[in-house]
Design a protein that fits this description.
CATH class of the largest domain: Mainly Beta
Number of domains: 3
Oligomer: single chain
CATH topology of the largest domain: Neuraminidase
CATH superfamily of the largest domain: TolB, C-terminal domain
Length: 630
């Protein structure tokens, strides 16, 4: 009897030692800031899909746990649960004996292997007890399932052993989808009457079908991604081929220019040699003239100078006198000392006039100009007062005035009314979360959270300023709220907890978030001049972008943390969109796109990034889808 009690205790306690992610006994139980515990390896797997953010969202309550550089490895071990796990393994003699369904009969004292389970009695049964159940009329109508079906997952016995903590005799065999807890029937009547209640077995079957469907979708998505990876590698080959051709073209251009320059070099060398020969000839002529003069002088003095000049006859004296006069005239001739210097100076004045630099240019690599292209213009059925991204190719438009309601509009112009929530309510703004849950604002102080199926989950109350709440979400699914005050409110994904209030220097009408948690704010039409500013979570700000007077700025952040800012000049009916890169808390302009032809009836506008190459811009009764080419 004592042995049976110990086994039952082990089976019951094991339910509290099961990781909510892997549904196995805890392995290195690791605790998050919210107090929920998971296997360390499960948290590491979960974190693999969230490497772009510096925190972890609890899979159960959506609370935020800040992560350090080592991420999950630096989270602390849940020492208490780890001790219970060790005790459990010691008592049960091995890993997961209860989870592996090695159950003994609990209907008799012989502890035979169970072959069936009675869902009416909540007992495992051996073969003999099964025969009794089948033969005795007292057990007529009991629901019996085979252990084989239980183990294979065809049927579920769920948590039938677990009793309600409040109503001790009642089984917790129902599930409250709103509160995400298991409850008994009496709990439903007392505290969950208006909630979405499901039978535990039905819920488990539904979850199993959902997991099966997701498994198939995962396999299909994996195949799709693997095919895409193959395509990427094929495109990589195309890129390498194109770059090699580009490199070959550059080298060929260089080779041609080198040959042209070598030919030019030879021409210049020939010209220099020709000049050199010309100058040499001129100098040689000068030299030859001087040598001839020397020769003439020497010849003349030889004739003139004679020891017998005193004995010469008159004719001889006359001849010699003439020779002396000629020699004297010859000696009086001025020596040309400047011509050679002039020739040298002419040579020194010769200069190489460098050719035009463009003649030596090897060319340049052309890149297509970044541009925006208006894909589609759609007439809205009434004036727009709110807009948000719905999918990568569609938006949700919120209408005011008499139209009311929410429309989903895609890039092809297809329109359908969103009917999961009441459509006759005066909504002001809207934002969808990743799981298609949504948050809608209905006044200057109130917003409501809805599940994807339309059931209300929570209400957000914000101190009002007379302006309605404008909504957005961060990449980690937080809810961002601006209400024309000097602050931005950041709520957890459920809308139940205000996590941060970021003070701002200017009145803020729009707020977007980057993957690292920076907040990009726009004052839109609230201030003149209009500004866009980047803040961190502590309220530290970078330098604001400031528009000219009566030009209004609307900003959005895309999936790659690039910031697009639309400058709306209503007076000149002009919209200019610019792309900025984040430089710390400052914005560095990368591109000013070509101005788009768009109709402006009002300064009330919205700019939303749908994907890295697609924007949506709305103004009054017009919606534009804009393609980006970078």
């Amino acid at each position: 009897m004592a042995e049976k009690i110990e086994i039952e205790k082990a089976s019951s306690s094991s339910q509290n030692l099961i990781c909510p992610l892997c549904l196995d006994i805890f392995d290195e139980p690791t605790i998050l800031m919210c107090g929920h515990t998971f296997c360390r390896k499960c948290l590491k797997k979960y974190d693999l899909t969230h490497q772009d953010i510096d925190h972890m969202v609890c899979p159960l309550c959506r609370e935020i746990t800040k992560l350090s550089a080592n991420r999950v490895d630096d989270l602390r071990l849940n020492v208490s649960i780890n001790g219970f796990v060790d005790d459990y393994h010691a008592k049960c003699g091995g890993m997961n004996s209860v989870l592996e369904m090695n159950h003994k009969c609990t209907a008799c004292k012989f502890q035979e292997d169970a072959v069936s389970f009675c869902r009416t009695c909540n007992n495992y049964m051996c073969d003999k007890c099964l025969q009794c159940h089948q033969r005795l009329s007292v057990f007529e109508g009991h629901e019996i399932v085979s252990m084989e079906d239980v183990i294979e997952g065809k049927v579920s016995i769920g948590h039938l052993f677990e009793k309600c903590f409040i109503h001790k005799q009642e089984n917790k065999d129902m599930f409250c989808d709103d509160c995400k807890v298991r409850v008994c029937l009496r709990c439903v009547v007392v505290g969950h009457k208006v909630h979405n209640i499901k039978n535990q077995s039905d819920f488990e079957q539904e979850l199993r079908r959902k997991v099966t469907a997701l498994t198939q979708q995962c396999a299909a998505k994996k195949a799709e991604l693997e095919k895409n990876i193959q395509n990427i590698e094929e495109q990589r080959h195309e890129v390498h081929t194109a770059m090699q051709k580009l490199l070959d073209d550059v080298r060929q251009a260089y080779s041609i220019k080198v040959k042209e320059m070598e030919g030019n070099l030879q021409d210049l060398i020939e010209q220099i040699n020709e000049l050199k020969r010309s100058f040499e000839d001129d100098l040689n002529i000068l030299k030859s003239k001087d040598r001839q003069r020397i020769k003439s002088i020497c010849s003349s003095i030889t004739l003139v100078y004679n020891d017998r000049l005193g004995h010469l006859e008159t004719d001889s004296l006359s001849a010699h006198n003439l020779l002396c006069d000629e020699l004297e005239a010859m000696l009086k001739e001025v020596t040309d000392r400047t011509t050679a210097e002039v020739i040298a100076k002419k040579a020194q004045e010769k200069r190489l006039n460098p050719g035009d630099k463009s003649c030596l240019d090897l060319g340049f690599i052309s890149v297509a100009d970044p541009k925006l292209e208006r894909m589609k213009c759609i007439d809205l059925r009434e004036r727009m007062i709110g807009m948000t991204r719905y999918t990568h190719t569609s938006v949700a438009i919120v209408y005011g005035s008499s139209a009311r309601g929410i429309d989903i509009i895609d890039t092809a112009g297809g329109t359908e009314q969103y009917t999961n929530i009441p459509h006759d309510v005066g909504y002001e703004d809207i934002v969808f979360e990743r799981d298609n849950a949504l948050c809608v604002s209905t006044s200057s102080t109130e917003a409501h959270m809805y599940s994807p199926n339309g059931s209300r989950k929570a209400t957000i109350n914000v101190s009002g300023t007379g302006y309605y709440l404008r909504l957005n979400r961060s990449p980690s699914n937080e809810i961002l709220i601006a209400n024309a005050a000097n602050k931005v409110y950041i709520y957890d994904p459920t809308g139940s907890t205000l996590k941060h209030t970021v003070p701002t220097k200017h009145r803020t009408w729009e707020a977007s978030s980057t993957r690292s948690g920076l907040i990009v704010t726009s004052s839109c039409e609230l201030t003149n001049p209009s500004v866009v500013t980047v803040y961190d979570r502590d309220g530290n700000a970078g330098e604001s972008l400031q528009a000219p007077m009566y030009v209004y700025l609307y900003a959005t952040v895309d999936e790659q943390d690039r910031v697009y800012v639309a400058s709306v000049d209503k007076k000149n009916r002009k919209v200019v969109i610019r792309l900025y890169d984040l430089d710390g808390l400052n914005l560095k302009e990368r591109v000013e796109f070509n101005a788009l032809n768009m109709t402006l009836y009002n300064k009330w506008c919205y700019l939303v990034s749908l994907s890295p190459d697609l924007l949506a811009f709305a103004c009054w009764k017009k919606l534009y889808f804009i393609k980006i080419s970078l």
